[in-house]
């Protein structure tokens, strides 16, 4: 019985270091994974709010086109002369003229 109490007493001091390590891991995950993702989502949402007719865009499916009209939750895009498609606003991903979209 005395042999079992010695290892249990030795682990008592390790509780704080384990807690500090878990907090540090969560902080690292937050600053390197969660925060940049939230920032990117806010940029995309702001881009979708400021869509204008005549703007060149790229959909999430990779379709390049020019906005012809904007409805409540949908956008009419011209992808070729006299070829128009209707897509959901949430599927619009980026501005086709932006340098960040061209480098990817």
From TrEMBL:
Determine the domain of life of the protein's source.
Bacteria
Question: SMART domains given for it?
Answer: YajC
Query: Where are the coiled-coil regions?
Result: none
- Topology relative to the membrane: Single-pass membrane protein
Any signal peptide, and if so, which residues?
Answer: none
Q: Where in the cell is it found?
A: Cell membrane
Q: Which UniProt keywords apply?
A: Cell membrane, Membrane, Protein transport, Translocation, Transmembrane, Transmembrane helix, Transport
TM spans (from-to)? 16-34
Q: Which InterPro entries match?
A: Preprotein_translocase_YajC
Which NCBIfam families does this chain map to? yajC
User: Which family does this protein fall into?
Assistant: Belongs to the YajC family.
Q: What is this protein called?
A: Sec translocon accessory complex subunit YajC
Species this protein is from: Phocaeicola faecium
Which gene is this protein's source? yajC
